[in-house]
Amino acid sequence: MDRDDIALFAGTLPGVAASEELSPLVERLLPGNEGARELEVLSDELVQAWAQREGFDPQAHYIVKAHPTHSDVYSVSLYEVEAIRHWSTPELVKLLRLVPALFARYYPESPEARALLPGFDGFDFHAFARLYREKIARGFEHVSLLGFPPDALRQKDARGDIRLADLFVPTRFITDDRDQKKPTLAQLLDRGRSALILGDPGMGKTTLLAFLSLLHSDPSVTLEGYRASPRRVPFFVSLREYALESHKTELALIDFLAVRARSDHSLSNAHAAFFEATLRMGEAIVLLDGLDEVGSSTTRSRVAKAVREFRAAYPRCPVWVTSRIHGYTADIALPRNEFEHLRIGPLADEDIDHFIKRWYRIQIPDNDRRREEQQNSLRRAVFRTSQVRALATNPLLLTLMAFVHRFLGHLPQERGELYEKCVDMLLRTWLDAKERPEKHAFERRALPTELPRAYLEKLALHVQFRAISDAHSVRGLFSRDDALDFLTQLHRERAEDEERDLSYDVAHAEMRDFIDFACDRVGLLVDRGGGKLSFLHLTLQEYLAAYAGSFDVDHEDEGRFVREHLGDGAWEEVLLLRWYVLARKRGERRRKLVRDLLGEIVDELTKTPEHPGWLTLGRAIRDGLVSRERDRRVILSVILSRWAQKPAFSGDIFLVLDDICEFGDSDLRSELRAACADLQEKGSTAEALAALHLEGKLLGDLPGAADRIRARPDLAELLPDLVVFRDEPALGTILDERSTVDHWATALAALGGTAVYRTTLGWLTGLSEAPVPFEAPFLGAARWLRERIRSEISSRLAYTEHYPERVHFLLQSPYGWRLSDWTHTLTSPLAFRKIPQALSALPQPAPITTTLRHPKLARDRMGDADLVEVPIIERMVRFNQDALAAFPQGEPIPEDAVHRIATAFVRTVVRTFAWSFPRSFTGNPKPTFVREFVQSLGRDLRSDILRSFGRAFAQNFVRDFFRTLGRSFLRSFGTALGRDFVRDLVPAQDRRRYVKLLGNPDASADALDWEARWDQALGEEAHVARVIEQDDFWWLIYIHRPRLGIHAEARPPNLTFDLKNPLALPVLLADVGTLAANEWLFALSRHLHVHPSDEKSSDEAWETWLDQNPVDAFWVAFAWDEHAKLIRRHHGRLDGPLGALALAHADYASLMTGFDLVATCPTWKSLLDEAGPEKVAALRVLGATPAAASAPASAAASAPASAPAAASVSAPAPEAAPLFTWLHLSDLHFGLPGAGDRHNQSQILSILRDDLSTLDRQKVPRPDAILVTGDIAWSGKPDQYAEASKWLLDVAQRLGLAKDRIFVVPGNHDVDRSIDADRNVKRLLRGLRGGDDDLDDALENPDDLDLLRRRQAAYLEFAAAFAPACRDLFWSSTETTREGLSLRLIGANTSLLAAGDDDARKLRLGQRQRALLNDAARERELVLVLGHHPLEDDWLAEQRDLARFLGSRAHAYLAGHVHDAKSERIVTGGGADALRIIAGAVYGGRERDIPHGHAYSVTSIHHAPSGGAVLRVHPRRFSFKNYDFRQDIDSTDEGRSYAEHPLARLSLPPAGPRFVR
């Protein structure tokens, strides 16, 4: 900050009296930049306290910034409306008394601290924090033994001292948005936001919080991808214990923390002031466990309110709260804008495998062979059936399985059965204990062996009843005295039934021993202290309660029991488990009882569809407990109808339907589909659409839906909502025939925002599939953009009308943005200043008055769309070249560095900007500078707030960008240039504080030594590499960033810059992002000032505007000339609906940025000049009016077909030669391990080679190329490829083809898996296959790319001998075939991540491979994609999305792998004419019963008789009977030797003269 900008404030602070002399506050702060951060937080807290005392809103007056001066003394600046108050730290000390807890933190020894805080003994807060962390670490060091007594574990040679850090598998999370990438635990912690963690029983909610406590208290515990702050303190609270305690004494949460620190951790001097100060300073992570377990609704509401208030009081600290899904109800809901709502996801296969390895590494540490045997045994048991595998996705059940396996050696297959085995195993420790010489007091009483189980069942049911009836009870927690009284009475009643005399005193003593025994030896009861008990886990309590009395039930009593508790969430699990026990464990009579009872309940509830019991019945369907199809049909119908009333892909009802789909078998999914179909056919308009969305969401495809929708009388009302189903071929046909511009405008306006903007831009540039041939989508999109333009112009005019004197200087003077640094200057136009005449003169666009029935469902269906990166990267390359052009050519910059930096920028900023930008300003706590800026617009735009605007934004986004892009820059330029980057980026006067980061913390050297030490430190490459990886380096860069301002200077038509040092290029690019952010915040703030919202709806208003006006428009305007080149390439000129859409996009981008696209984009200017002013004006109006809305989108759709021509009596013309033909081979498997297989293979290959010589006789076209789709070798070894190469070259020679006509891609057998033993390869594969790491990032990282290439090294050497394009991991090749047909071949590597038999759902292509299709033009060229794995059976993790993508870009996908030949249309995707062609295996094995064991195919493209093109697939398969290859009649059209597939969207060149080859 410049001293000229500071008005020094001297004297005493208003309203604060002078105090005793205290030591300087600076001595109490952390050193260096950490002290600046600490002081900034402290200052903000003190200003808040001062404002509260003085009665004003601090957010409306001040923004607090702390910064070190050159003498390392801190000062604080408060940016006010008219001036800046500059306070030194002594002034702040005067404020400390307003917050006693903070005063005690910095001056604990002061007598005044004790006076302000009764009970405070003057302890040092930092020392206490260290001690508290040590106590927490000890408390959470070991996992619960699940009740297994230590001596019993020793008898079984099982380890009981299991460290949590050794066993914990990082939790997976699911968001409401299924298309959003699932965040990892490390990512969530890095965000620093509060979170509500929902999970079913046993999903590890408490264990997660225990691990987080350990992670933040024990420095030896780590989590990959996250570095815990050494100053962060974990505060763990069991909310059920807090609920009980606070009911007695009305404790606040912060006081409860102090109480528990004294009682649980023996910290007798613990005081609430420590917890308050830590929370105020943002140095805690708060972990609140079990929001749903706090008893009655009154108690739950009270505790939830306390949590909300606690979060509001201490917004700097993340608060994590856990709850069961079914217990999280509206009365305890936490605000979504403050708490990120997440569900704990099921354990994936690799998580289970990881757990098993960890488990037996702990249990059997010294015997490798035995440990591996046990690991394999448990792994086989878990994965042997889908039922057991499904159970293992629950962490509690997996842990129980591990214990059961350790003790019993086998595993049950159902949830209830597993609970039973667990309980039986725990109870068995009692029987085992009888053999020991030392006896528990209860054992010496020699009571019957069946007594513990029966008594615990009755006790569980008693506790279940008692918890619900007691308004102040906590679920699962009960009084020892109450349990003793109940068991005593039960014990005496048993004795009376047995006609034994048992006194109260004896029964009481025996049951007291029984409770101790159940806690100490059996482990099913847990002593919680304070006279309280609980069962080992609430789930086991519910299971035992379900079992109680299940041997002796009758229909009437059971019906009464069910009707009493059905619909009560606290009883749901009990009812489900009880039905399981009766139906599966108690014989046919009880099974019939359950069946009949559920039927009666269904009939009774039919009259009350809102009854919550329907959800329990739905979960009973999920668990396979509803045996009658009629009952299932009714239940599904009711639940679906209820969901359709308020449809959302979240909430209890949806989760029930999701569970049914996820865990049910194929028959159950068919019943769910039938229920959806029924609602689509008979429901209301809204219900039919909701059911359509649900079926697509849960079940994927929509068979028969189009027929049902077409038959509805309200079809016209459905059409706008059907727009998002355009990728479904049959529904897309309805849109083609019936939709209008109004329908598309309505849909696009309701969908709005980033996804629509990116999608319509893709239509325009030809980089995504456009909905051709009809015009309604383009005119609808243009109309939507014109509406956005109208809204923006109206906002500017309204603001100008309200505050003419405040914006006059902007409108009359050449103002623009300017950001100046010692390394560069950057300027940009200020968009607010000007409304182009061409836009203001346009007629008002027709208002869009209708909306979608279910816009949220539609947005989910549409999903995210990627911003087209190609033109932005190309523009950024030119930008970088221009920036570097002014410097001497001798600069040692690598040739590809400019492109790599451009790519890194786009991927770091542009790809994530639309996601990160809105969240930077709508999260909580809200950045105060945004509020201030909104208010300053109502006062004076020349306020000093503008100068701090860009800097404040950097705190939210740009600093992270510096760090990310800076590291990428270092990788691109090398460490040597990185040294120059660090040296030149840091001004000389500031280098002293940086030396510490470079490895020299000595603070005693004089100024001359600093410069020498600086140069010495930079001379070591290791230091340079380390400094760029450190957050502190980028923080120091951040606090010295210049402040952005509005300056009166010549208004530039676009971005202009002056780069003074080429090594500052990354910082220049970062500042381009700063300009974009500020331009959008300027417009947002102006909009909010014109349309103010109350506090409750402010977040929603911000999010809505930012979504409707995506910041992508900045980057599009920046790169508009590259977009214009694509428009010219794909469309030639500005004309018709596409011309209207192009002008709308250009006008919107120019309006939002102020960029003059005509002056700065020569390609765009030439397009406008060619069209002429009159046509341009007409196209602008065409995009703004609904004139085209009156007619259906495709008038030709209803035109009658012409009459067929008379049959010709002349001889048919000879068949024209195909335009292109290929031989498709796959799965050759050279190098088979068995000698018999190898000999048999050589015979098959010889016969196939001979068969190719007879193609002419078989009337099969001769191939122009050979396409091989993987599994060429057996195990990826060089000698196997030598054989393959020899055979393929022989085949090519017989066909008259050169070796460069052979195109290959690898399969899973082409991976050399011996490389996977390398530790780095294992790490890389684990992250990529699990989806935790990004494949595209790995492909950009030279080290990771090298690891991936090593796995296919022998294959790559083999492939290099054939078509030149095939020399890389994946490739693209183009050529021109007969009659001018353009052919594009894409070689996709689906086997990059192949690693074993568990490849399903773990293989990925990533965005980089998809980008090979960016330039594909299906209308003008034949596009064939080669891959090994088919788009079926979930081999690829992104299968559905990839099928849709390929369907929109390619004509055919050629694959192998499954050994079964077929050709069919891809039905899951966007292209109605995309084909999936599977060749079958050239050699699939010797077994005669394997269908299509040996096969290949020949495919050709022809002119269709009616116009267009067709593909003809000639499949050939091996006949074991005749021992030769023959036509595969099962895969051809009847009466033909081929299967024919039309390619409707390929426009062939005009047919040439017919000739016979």
Automatic annotation (TrEMBL):
GO terms for molecular function: hydrolase activity. It comes from the Bacteria. Gene3D superfamilies: 3.60.21.10, P-loop containing nucleotide triphosphate hydrolases. Coiled coil: none annotated. Residues 193-324 form the NACHT domain. This is Metallophosphoesterase. Pfam families: Metallophos, NACHT.
